[in-house]
Each structure stands twice: as structure tokens, then as C-alpha cells.
Design goal:
OprB_Porin, Porin, Carb-sel_porin_OprB, 16-stranded antiparallel β-barrel, about 375 residues
Length: about 375
């Protein structure tokens, strides 16, 4: 099971010139309506996030930089034990932890075109994200599950990142991250020691693309490549040093409202990895997110998406089904400035690719802004 999708791009990377303290409490209660693979049929979990950002003007009277520190506490059930799905129907599921999950500093140079970011970073806040996939509870819209050892929730990692944004809308970014999760080390609860020492094996990623407009509607298309320098078990036997893959991402506004605000947005993803070591060789996902679906509810949102993973056919991989399909729909009701409630329905076809029954899952996510 993979957990992802808590981030939708470098919104936290924007230099607002303001200091801020933030916090959220998210709860998710799920019930398997059909297809439970264990005696239990419900799961509940909590995720508390708190942190602060300080502008560099406050720190040392110089513009262009920001310091960010945030911590998380997660507890509760892991929903995958109910249905055995691979992609992860709840993106806040984890084994339970308390940690400083991000602690980074970034600085803008060349009139904001160049951005340097270093420290403990969730890679999904910068790479492989789709903005219009950010409202879904399914993990795969966060990032493609073909990306092995991606340093994202619940295991951000020490890193160095560099980004360039051109005047024409083109952009490029590169990051080098501690890849110790491949060796079983939980980087989310650790500092930088494994970035500089054992176990070795760095995770590197590069992404380039362009922010564009189609008939005046904003969009973005990007292509990325990643490499993990750790050691991997081959399904057919033996070990290999390093593996790599590619991914594609697309965000496109289809309908805009007043002030150019997106009303209907489309996202699409594709990922590829080496089937000799990766459980998933191909991944494809797409969906729609509708912002303000009711005229008197501008802060509500709704979404519909599908995500498919094709499992490795390599001898020894152990999959009996070709792939797993997840379909999700949700409605997010912004009940108050500080409270959002999101009923969510997912159907999982061939969960886990090993002959388990198809599953229908209902989840109620509640988010409180502290």
C-alpha cells in the first residue's frame, strides 16, 4: 500500500512576505460496504499537523527567503488491512508516528526565477503532483505509485532542491533526497544522518514542463525522471543496484468563473518503472475536480477520478491479476471557515492483484483548521 496525496504542489513555496502559524486535524472513518478481506470492516485514523513559517525579513532583514518547520502526529487503523488494496484508499494511513516531518529553508534569486530549497522536504510538495488531484482521498492522485522510494508522507527526507521558472512559463527542477526508506529506514522520524551516511542510496528526481494557457484557461504539463541508487531485490532472484523510471503529469482548467478562477479542472498522470523490481510497471490516472459546484456554495468541491496500476508480470512477482482499478467520487462541504466534511465513495477492482474480492468503501473525512 502507498500513502500519498497530502500535497498539491509548491503552494508552501510561495513567498508571501508574511509569517504564519498553521495547524490542521484530519479524521477519516471508513466502512467497507462489500469485499472486506478480514473480520474487521471499519477503520478510523487521525492526523494532526502543526507548524510555522517565518519570512527571511524577520530572520535577518533580507527579502526572498522562508523558513518552514512542521510536525505531524498520526494514529489509528490502516485501511489496507480491510481490503488488501495496493494503491491505498486513504492518503493519511500510516503505521503511526510523531515527528518533525518538514524543516526547510528556501531562497529566491534572480528576481524570483531561481529557487533553492534545502532541509527535510516532502518531495511530493515539489515533484510529480497534480493540483486538480489534491481533493481526492485515494493515494495515487498524489503521485504515481510507480515511483519507488519516493520521499513523501509519511517519510519526507533530507534533500537539496533547485528550481527555475522562466518568463515564458517553462520550468525545471531537480532534487536529491535521502533514499534510506528503501533499506527500511523511516526517514520521516529521523534527521539528516542517513543522507550523509549509511545506508547509502540517494533518490534523485528531475522534472521539466510548462505552465500554459489554452483559450485563456491555465494549465500545466510536466515530465519527470527519477533514479534510486539503493539496492533492490529482483523478482526473479538476485539483487540489482539502482532503478529508475519516468512520469508525466497534466493539469488543465476546463471552465473558469469570475476573475479567472477555475471552476472545473482536469488532471492526468502516467508512470513507468522497471518490472523486474517494481510491483507496478505502468500507472495511469485521470480525474475531474469541480470547484464551487453549487452557486451558493463557492468553497465546496466535488470530484470523480479513476486510477489503474498494471502489476509486474515478472516471474516471482506473485500477482494473479493483471492490475488494480480504483474509482473515486467525493463531495467536500465547507461547513465553516474552520471545518470541512467530505463523504467519499471508492470502488476497488482486483485489490492487490492477488484474487481478493472487489471492494466498495465509504469514508467520511473531517478536516479542522486550528
Amino acid at each position: 500500500m502507498l500513502a500519498a496525496g497530502l500535497f498539491t504542489g509548491p503552494a508552501a513555496g510561495e513567498n508571501t512576505g508574511e509569517n504564519r502559524v498553521f495547524g490542521t486535524l484530519e479524521s477519516g472513518n471508513s466502512a467497507v460496504l462489500s469485499g472486506a478481506g478480514s473480520a474487521a470492516s471499519t477503520a478510523a485514523r487521525l492526523l494532526l499537523t502543526a507548524g510555522f513559517e517565518i519570512d527571511s525579513r524577520t530572520l535577518f532583514d533580507q527579502p526572498g527567503g522562508r523558513l518552514h518547520v512542521s510536525a505531524m502526529h498520526q494514529t489509528g487503523d490502516n485501511g489496507t488491512r480491510l481490503v488488501g488494496d495496493f494503491q491505498g484508499f486513504s492518503n493519511i494511513d500510516a503505521a503511526g508516528f510523531t515527528a518533525i516531518t518538514e524543516a526547510w529553508y528556501q531562497h529566491h534569486l534572480l528576481d524570483g526565477r531561481l529557487r533553492l530549497k534545502f532541509g527535510k522536504v516532502d518531495a511530493n510538495s515539489e515533484f510529480a503532483y497534480v493540483e486538480h488531484g489534491g481533493g481526492f482521498l485515494q493515494s495515487s492522485p498524489g503521485f504515481s505509485p510507480t515511483i519507488l522510494g519516493f520521499p513523501s508522507y509519511p517519510d519526507p527526507a533530507t534533500s537539496v532542491n533547485l528550481f527555475y521558472h522562466g518568463k515564458s512559463g517553462a520550468y525545471a527542477g531537480v532534487g536529491v533526497y535521502d533514499g534510506a526508506t528503501q533499506a527500511g529506514v523511516a526517514t520521516g522520524t529521523r534527521g539528516p544522518s542517513t543522507f550523509f551516511g549509511t545506508p547509502d542510496g540517494l533518490f534523485s528526481v528531475v522534472e521539466t514542463g510548462v505552465h500554459h494557457r489554452v483559450t485563456g484557461r491555465p494549465g500545466r504539463v510536466g515530465i519527470g525522471a527519477w533514479r534510486h541508487g539503493g539496492d533492490f531485490d529482483r523478482f526473479g532472484g538476485g539483487r540489482q543496484s539502482s532503478t529508475q523510471g519516468i512520469y508525466l503529469v497534466l493539469d488543465q482548467s476546463l471552465v473558469t468563473g469570475p476573475a479567472g478562477r477555475t471552476r472545473l479542472g482536469l488532471f492526468a498522470q502516467y508512470g513507468y518503472a522497471d518490472a523486474d523490481v517494481s510491483p507496478v510497471q505502468h500507472h495511469a490516472g485521470a480525474g475531474l475536480q469541480w470547484y464551487g459546484p453549487l452557486t451558493d456554495r463557492p468553497d465546496d468541491s466535488a470530484g470523480l477520478m479513476a486510477s489503474f496500476v498494471q502489476f509486474s508480470k515478472a516471474p516471482g512477482a506473485g500477482f494473479t491479476d493483471r492490475g488494480e482499478l480504483a474509482v473515486e467520487c467525493f463531495y467536500r462541504w465547507q461547513a465553516a471557515d474552520w471545518l470541512a466534511l467530505q463523504p467519499d465513495l471508492q470502488f476497488i477492482d482486483n485489490p492487490g492483484g492477488r484474487g481478493r474480492p472487489d471492494a466498495l468503501i465509504m469514508t467520511l473525512r473531517a478536516a479542522i483548521s486550528l
